[in-house]
Amino acid sequence: AQTVTQSQPEMSVQEAETVTLSCTYDTSESDYYLFWYKQPPSRQMILVIRQEAYKQQNATENRFSVNFQKAAKSFSLKISDSQLGDAAMYFCAYRSPNSGNTPLVFGKGTRLSVIA
Amino acid sequence: NAGVTQTPKFQVLKTGQSMTLQCAQDMNHEYMSWYRQDPGMGLRLIHYSVGAGITDQGEVPNGYNVSRSTTEDFPLRLLSAAPSQTSVYFCASSRTEHTEAFFGQGTRLTVV
Question: Fewer CB within 10 A of the terminal residue: chain B, N end or C end?
Fold first, then answer.
């Protein structure tokens, strides 16, 4: 079974600075999908970014980008020019393309604080 | 656009009571699932469905039932509530097994 590990329970960053959240995963599959979700205090789960494993190019969405290292099974999220609204829980998630089994496997999350 | 709608947003139950958490999506998604979120545990899969009439168990199914009679609805039933079921529950849907999941706003359930 696939597992997702987020080794940083909490992180903090100064406003306007850059922060990187770590995520590693364990799988024997060669093709899969990886996601970062943001959960602000409102509790809503919001998709931040998506990466397909067969694509070598790292995904980017405005100030959010990933460093996808397939061989190392690492999928870190970089937030540039951090803003107060970025303060939230961030969850890394894995999805197998062969679902009929587990839809999404989540890490335990990283709580990000942004300091003004 | 409604997306995924969960009701209720908050609920308090007494031990032994039963109830149903409602989940509906208007995106014609085949895949739907229920997760529970507990502090320090992330989101854990309870049950999921790959289409109407098809359901399967996830990581933590005990104490919960589901059914999927239509594409739109995927209710979660607590048969006999226990304090260990105090949690935040999320319903999610996705168009295919390759795409991202869209989440409802969650239900905070307290069992006393």
Answer: N
Which residues on B lie below 8 Å from A2 (Cβ)? none
Of A112, A94, A115, nearest to A1 by C-alpha is: A94
Q: What confidence tens digit (pLDDT) does each residue in A95-112 have? A: 987 755 567 899 999 999
* Distances in whole angstroms, Cα of residue B93 to Cα of each of A11, A42, B54, B71: 30, 19, 14, 10
Rounded CA gap, A83 and A79, in Å?
A: 9
CA distance B3 to chain A (A): 12
Cα–Cα–Cα angle for B66, B95, B67, nearest 5°? Answer: 10
Confidence of residue B1 (pLDDT cuts 50, 70, 90): low
Give the DSSP per-residue string, A77-106: EEE-S--GGG-EEEEEEEE-TT-SS-S-EE
